[in-house]
Amino acid sequence: MKVILVGVGWLGQQLLDPLKSDGHRVLATRQSAEGLASLPPDVQGGVLRLPQEQASTAALNAMFKGAVVICSVPPGWRKLQGQGYLASLTSLAELMDTAGSLACIHLSSTGVYQGLDGEVTEKSSLQLSDAKADLLFQGEQRLRQSISCCTLRLGGLIGPDRHPGKFLAGRLLSDPAGAVNMVHSTDVIAAIRLILQQQSWPAVFNLCCPEHVSRQHFYQQAAAALALAAPIPAENSQTSRRVIATSICQQLGFSYHYASALEAVT
Q: Coiled-coil stretches, from where to where (predicted)?
């Protein structure tokens, strides 16, 4: 199967070898020729700057034809409040539609549940009056409306060179009694490989360590694992939500390597 990675960042780089070992023809896009040159020599690709300012070239159309596209374009919420995100996904959707791509695996975020509390699932009604939730949901919809799409709503990403013990060491910890909603890159990669194997699209799945761990316990243990200062629990709790992420297990037979986020850091 031809698989194209759009957005080869921290997670995309970890995906390259597993997908190749599964026998897929793996291609990648970067925003510049310099970025493209930094890819491993055995990974072919093309320059794709999103949003596109002009019609796709014949070479890009040929590259995307019949491919499964893994979209990991970040929303850029913290720095840019999502500016340009929807335009980028709209442009990608148009490219996949014009080129005749087979399907898309969209790496979205459990941030789409912003504003909700309690347990949330893929069927929960979203609080679209929240700007972040609305942005992420609109992004999901842009891709789904153009191509058969499997949307993966990822919890906070942890893994190689991204240890959560550094996130809040010695800092104020909000909502200490709330659930920590995180997922290890090992499980994200395993889920993507399974989805490609079963061609599980269209679909929407949460990906998050399924066992409940409080934020206070998790971040205290994570900081201790690196011998860093423990976070300081806030006295007042904020809106708390726990992402239920077992639908992919029930529907696809997926099994988490890290059932608890604690297993990934201690």
A: none
Q: How would CATH label the architecture of 2-264?
A: 3-Layer(aba) Sandwich (3.40)
Among 166, 142, 145, 153, residue whose Cα is nearest residue 114: 153
Contacts of 84 (CB under 8 A, 6+ apart): 51, 76
So where are the chain's domains? Answer: 2-264
Report which of residues 33 and 133 the model is more confident about: 133
CB proximity list for 172: less than 8 A, separation 6 or greater = 231, 232, 234
The one-letter amino acid at 49: R
Q: Give the position of tokens 């909502």.
A: 175
Residue corresponding to tokens 């840019």: 80
Rounded CA-CA distance 169/227 in Å is 10
CA 232/CA 229 separation, integer angstroms: 9
DSSP string, 75-141: --HHHHTTTTHHHHHHHHHHHHHHHT--EEEEEEEGGGGTT--EEE-TTSPP-TTSHHHHHHHHHHH
The residue type of 150 is C
- In this structure, the number of other CB atoms found within 10 A of the CB of residue 120 comes to 21
- Cβ(73)–Cβ(6) below 8 Å: yes
Cα 173 to Cα 10: distance, rounded to the nearest angstrom: 26
Average pLDDT score, the chain: 93
Q: What is the pTM of this model?
A: 0.95
